[in-house]
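Appendix B, example 12.
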Amino acid sequence: MTGIVFRGPKDPSEFPNWRFETLEIDYDRETASVWMNYRVDAPQCYTPTMLAELLQLRDSLRVLGMSGRIEEFPFRYLVMTAKRPGVFSLGGDLATFAAAIRRQDLATLVTYAHACVDLVYGYSQSLDLPIVTLCAVQGQCLGGALEAALAFDFILAEENAMFGLPEVAFNTFPGMGAVTMLTRRVGSALTQQIIMSGQTYTGRQMFELEVIDQVTSPGTIRAAAVEWMRDAGGKKWRRRRAIAEARRRSHPVTHDELIRITELWAECSARIEERDLRHMERLVRAQKRLIGSRQNAPEGEQLLVSSSS
């Protein structure tokens, strides 16, 4: 099995000093924002441990929002970002996928996929809290990482960030929300083009395609996010909340739809051929080499990780 161990919410009285293995939590009083950072030393894909912690953080923030602690720490924005230079997240845990497929363990794929969908659905609903969610991207944001980003209300990215859905490279498809979330943003035709091409796109290109909301210069994502949220009186925040809620009402996302699509993904993935599985395993090795370096990977390595070619 996947080893996803679901954990109870953190004590709101200990916020913002919550501790996780894979995440780092910051609070910015000026913008009333909680920052969920992928740690520099964390695996740069959604391992079972990271998924469990992300779900725990979701539940912890919901409890925080209903507690008296919220008066001391006003909470208007949730920001998802990463601290490792050059890598936002490489997405799904391909090592877990490959091992499960080799032993024909559909249950593991389904369990993992359901956890991802629960998380993505929570993001798509702004955690059922009166907040605005913001994803701030630098570096490579691939596969499941892009699916998670698309569930946020707004996306900011550095111009040279790299986005992609490479699943077509091993004859499957992004099954944890991309179909639903991209369609809600840009329509079915462009969604199909992005998914079927397996192409990688820069932050600038994604902005021009209207997939993301704003771009900023390389190396400035954190400052740009703070500036985007800075708002004396809260007028921008109220307007953004209304826009996000209007989007949810006009293009509703249901948990049932996400579950049905992700179970199709699990069935499709379990049937991929040996050559597709070997390509997936090559990507695993490439990811490990990339993660093993504090510096950006050489150009050829990045292409191996993020391209469908």
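The chain has a mean pLDDT of 92. The radius of gyration is 18 Å.
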